[in-house]
Design brief:
By secondary structure, the chain is α+β, with helices and mostly antiparallel strands. The protein contains 8 helices and 16 strands. Strands 1, 2, 3, 4, 5, 6, 8, 9, 13 and 16 form a 10-stranded mixed sheet that branches. Strands 7-14-15 form a 3-stranded antiparallel sheet. Strand 5 and strand 6 form a beta hairpin. The longest helix is centred in the first third of the chain and has 15 residues. The relative contact order is 0.17.
Length: about 300
């Protein structure tokens, strides 16, 4: 087997470099051909990983957070190269959604080479594939604010960012959206609405462990569109607690619908994020690319 193992020198407060080096050693000891990609930026990692995928490596393993996982997803979608995740970032939401543990557990899964074919989210205007979710509302502002907080907060950075944005709700007007949604039966619906959160999701978790789309299945050929209507700050705190446990879908302000495609038009100042990484301002169209990515997952995942 031919592997490329990529890691950022600073991702995960240095843990990515250590985990990546351990993976390289373990794979070589098992007799595999391994190329190590140690990058100091996402741009460098993308260039070198793209070359490895073009060269036909069997597996691109990435040590780091959801940003580098999203990079690998975009490069490997529709190819014969599988993506392996070695979680060492802030949120690690895609690893959590796929049942991939940290440290030795992730290395063991990589060595076992168990595979699962999953869907991705194709952001049409950018021709970019995202694995977990696209954030297009208050959730996008939270994701952006989280990147500005001290790295020592780890996954708590998302919670802190959420509390700051919730506090600002008292002074911020509702966000107005137009959603054009293609349902599983092919019907197309269009509606205008005020919303705080608009998330086309492929995976259950986002935002450092928030169980926002508890029913999302990355292998069903559908996305889960999560919409949260405007809330008072007090009610938003109730929502945040409920999301942690995946119980928020019973709240009247929350709607989850299954779809194959959604076009999200909204405030021009909302910068949409994919797996925690900045994408582009709205409008954007997100559609399911069914069964177009192989993932290395634990045997029981």
């Amino acid at each position: 087997m031919r592997y490329a193992v990529a890691h950022g020198r600073r991702s995960g407060r240095g843990g990515a470099a250590l985990l990546g080096a351990q993976a390289v050693g373990a794979l070589r000891s098992a007799g595999h051909d391994v190329v190590e990609v140690a990058a100091s930026s996402l741009a460098e990692a993308r260039d070198r990983c793209a070359a490895a995928v073009a060269d036909g490596v069997d597996v691109l393993a990435v040590a780091g957070g959801d940003g580098v996982v999203s990079l690998a997803t975009d490069l490997c979608a529709g190819t014969g190269t599988a993506v392996g995740i070695l979680p060492a970032g802030t949120g690690n939401d895609n690893a959590r959604s796929l049942g991939i543990g940290s440290g030795p557990a992730a290395l063991a899964a990589l060595l076992q080479d168990g595979r699962r074919t999953v869907d991705t989210l194709h952001v049409v205007e950018l021709d970019r594939h995202v694995l977990g979710s696209v954030n297009a509302g208050l959730d996008a502002r939270i994701a952006h604010r989280a990147t500005l907080l001290p790295r020592r907060l780890g996954s708590w950075s998302y919670t802190v960012a959420a509390l700051v944005e919730i506090a600002r709700l008292r002074w911020t007007p509702p966000l107005r959206y137009a959603l054009t949604t293609t349902l599983p039966d092919g019907r197309v619906t269009t509606e205008e609405l005020d919303a705080l959160v608009v998330v086309p999701a492929n995976m259950p978790y986002l935002g450092g462990g928030l169980h926002l789309a508890p029913g999302a299945d990355p292998g069903d050929g559908l996305l889960d569109l999560v919409v949260v209507r405007p809330l008072t700050p007090a009610r938003a705190l109730v929502l945040l607690r409920a999301v942690r446990a995946g119980r928020h879908t019973a709240m009247p302000e929350v709607e989850v619908r299954r779809a194959t495609r959604v076009r999200v038009e909204g405030p021009a100042d909302v910068l949409a994020h994919g797996d925690g990484e900045a994408l582009a301002p709205l409008p954007l169209t997100v559609q399911v690319a069914s069964a177009n990515l192989q993932m290395i997952v634990p045997a029981l995942a």
